[in-house]
Amino acid sequence: MRVAVRDVLGSQQFGLTAIIVLLGIVLTFAAGSHTDAAGVTHNNFLNSYTLIQVATDASFFAIMAVGATLVIVSGGIDLSVGAVYAVAGVTMALVLRAVGPVSPTATVLIGMVTALGVGLLSGLLNGAMVVGLNVHPFIITLGTMWVLRGISFVSSHAESILVPPSLMMAAKATLGLGGALSPIPMLAMILVTIVGSIYLTRTVMGRHIVAVGGNPEASRFSGLRLGRVQIGVYVLSGLTAGIATFLGASFYGSASCADANGYELYVIASAVVGGASLTGGKGSAVSATLGAILIVMMRQAIRTMHLDQNYEWIIVGTAIIVAVVLDRHGTTLLARRMARRATKGVGPADARVASSEAPPSVMVS
Amino acid sequence: MIPSVECVGITKSFPGVLALNDVSFSAMPGTCHALCGENGAGKSTLGKLLAGIHRPDAGTITLDGRLVHFDEPRDALAAGVGMVHQELAFCEQMTVAENLSLGHLPRRRGFVDRRAMCERAEQLIAEVAGADAPTIDVRRPIGELTVGQRQLLQIATAVGSGARLLVLDEPTSSLSEHEATHLYDLVARLKARGVTLIYVSHRMHELFQLCDAVTVLRDGAHVATRPIGEYTEAEIVRLMVGRTVEGYVRQWNDTLLDHAAPTAVAGNTKAPRLTVDRLSSPGKFDEISFRVEAGEIVGLAGLVGAGRSQVMEAVFGLDPAARGTVRVDGEAIDIRTPHDPMEHAIGLVPEDRKKQGLVLGLSGRENLVLPTLSRFASATLVRRPAERTVTQQYFSRLRVRAPGIESATVSLSGGNQQKIVLAKWLAANCRILLLDEPTRGVDVGAKAEIHALIDEIAREGVAVVLVSSELPELLSLSDRVLVMRQGKLVAELPRETNQDTVLREMLQ
Cα–Cα distance between B168 and B31 in angstroms, integer? Predict the structure, then answer.
């Protein structure tokens, strides 16, 4: 039991949650309160409207960060998610405009299938090129980032396209919470995070992603199909971008070629703040979402505390570096603790060998 | 006369291995001194000590009468010791001239002085290259040069920086006949200039042609140092062998009855478990054919670079260029990726467990079930309890000493890591196991356990191909020994064979 408690306390998710809660407490005190017409006092931060607003802001790129985490864990990188978001949103809006007025259910279904389908195909394109052309994913997705963004410009004639109101009604459904509260994006974020987390830790494919990212050579020697794993992660990354754009375009009522500009960096930042290692083999869907929430809360903090908006970039940029350095430092400490535990567990003869071992040169002379 | 180099009582151990034990020898200036020994005798280690790559645990090195201590290769270089490695390290995209001046690029007004750099490179090459050697354009990228030319450059760099002692580690192992003759000429010229050479090679005729004296090592211990003229080839080979068998000795009598019988019975038409038929891969190995019966251990002997590992990898679907037929129980199988041989219960324990065998960041459990993960899944989710049960089972069967099945493999000792790699394929219920150096870098205790395990799985009917650079290991475990030399299968020897015979086939 004590071990379980220690594991939870030492886990990365706990650390992130603690920082988020801490920041929330600071914001609650810093934000102050106001009194509404009815004479009830409300805290300017700790109220259901602001909290759901923070979650909604986070949800669009947290969903994509879950996909990006899969790519990063596999040892790759996907810079095109912002562009996929735009092209899938624009396509969805154009398709719905072409279809014309249909029943609300049909509208939602057609919109969803289009957005998710375009996201999936874009991911497939990325994956197929990374594997088929054997070019570094940074370059491939840098290219598709501009190509897809360009396609969304051309096809939308650089105009914002309205989507049918039934979509907004669906995305802003209050689900009985009343008032201006719309929890759908937040719930979608939670759902995608849970599914992503189960996928990465509990399915065969997810475990293969971790192994390939950790050591592609050893994975190949274990009979894993590297190409299939690589294509898979880009498809899933595209799919999460499709989900995000379906929610985003519905929520805001329109899609434009300029949507999600620069989101790829927020998405990667979320995954990295969440502890994903850019060298592969390490990362968590839950942590990526927590990372996204943390970044949004820092933005919120600037607003709540009435700081100059222009400081946002400086603060977010600094926070990313600090987070990653802390995470790396934490890993070193953990490794040291583990090594100590390892030497305690085995006999003295083995402990000596555990420290290092003979270089191959000894045997090949 | 003062020896150019004198080693006294050199001892060097790596965890689990005593690489050199109280080795003493000396070489006179302007001579070529051969270092002989089997794979693992300690030749390369001795060379690396001289070049400052390793530091001795005990003993002294004297150069021209001066006691020296090297902490780093640059200290050795400063003292006039250069080493030409088996793997030639250069920056591929940079030009010959840049590579030769790396670390001390000539500068003029803050910029690299290209002309001075090229002149210096040409001068360096002219000093070591013979008149008949093809000229090298120092402005070309080094990647365009042949292996022989690169070697020449490495020697030129060493001599140019004032090396009086040059260690050549298997210099001809990757050269063509023609390139080798250039190297022989170069060695002669260097000797004439008073440079002392330490020459590590397996090729006997070279040693007799080039060297003045020979030092033989065996199991890290010094056996003899004599003028080479006092020996014949056969005598040197005899001095090299005779390593002691440590650890496990196979119980022949039991196993003979078990698995030699099926093939011995007349009229038995049962196909062998594994048949490899005319397997070739351009530039790696050529027309390799052999068969392995169920329950048989076939040893594959050969020098480093003879192509043993490459054959193993080709059978396991890791070499897309490989051509030939692989049959399991007489049925030809289509091998494109490792997935295909795995379908037929073939497993490979690779040579380099850290790079190829394990995902070091993952736990013992995650590594152990990696090849067979889908067997643990129901309704797409992997069943953790089933994984744990199987991992526990193999951890206790192989006596893996680890804090637990969840501890990261990176923190385990070499022997325990290797046991997990073996367990991966045992858990996959392999009927054919390809073992490539299964005890490399493993401590003595774990080695004996792994030997016993190999015997045990063979007795259970698994067909085993064993690649090992340690002849005693190979001979104590194998039912038959195949010998590879320069990509070809050159001999098949019965298990009664001795180290002397195998080594002679390996060297020739």
Answer: 13
